[in-house]
């Protein structure tokens, strides 16, 4: 008996759209984490098991795809209960975060990118206010300061060689803790 998976998959048409979108986002997360934003669209489509036409229908540009991936990451970041927990989550997502930060720099006017930036600003503002109220962060620290720290942390950890990332993380976190602590 032949394996049912042999040959082309049946075309499910519009019914497959949501599954294809999820598969594309998951594939893009893995590909971006491994190779940054330079990864080819064809590699993402192949990993997702869909054609490039499907990829372009969902995400006409790489920036929009990166924004969709980071939108999912923001959901995880929103579960952070403090700036420390946020920094830990950013580090866990560092490679993808750095890729998205590169996208943000080059595409500030893309609505999907603006939306992510707004969500991140709201999240950081809420966590900062809570940490300041608890006396863990200096009251003079502004939301923009913490956003800068997040950007620096993601880029620094992502740029470090894999064998150096733990040390870079430890040193970066110590510096940021001193910089943000109450005076």
UniProtKB/TrEMBL annotation:
<dbReference type="InterPro" id="IPR050109">
    <property type="entry name" value="HTH-type_TetR-like_transc_reg"/>
</dbReference>
<keyword id="KW-0238">DNA-binding</keyword>
<dbReference type="InterPro" id="IPR001647">
    <property type="entry name" value="HTH_TetR"/>
</dbReference>
<keyword id="KW-0804">Transcription</keyword>
<feature type="DNA-binding region" description="H-T-H motif">
    <location>
        <begin position="40"/>
        <end position="59"/>
    </location>
</feature>
<keyword id="KW-0805">Transcription regulation</keyword>
<feature type="domain" description="HTH tetR-type">
    <location>
        <begin position="18"/>
        <end position="77"/>
    </location>
</feature>
<protein>
    <submittedName>
        <fullName>TetR/AcrR family transcriptional regulator</fullName>
    </submittedName>
</protein>
<dbReference type="InterPro" id="IPR009057">
    <property type="entry name" value="Homeodomain-like_sf"/>
</dbReference>
<dbReference type="Pfam" id="PF00440">
    <property type="entry name" value="TetR_N"/>
</dbReference>
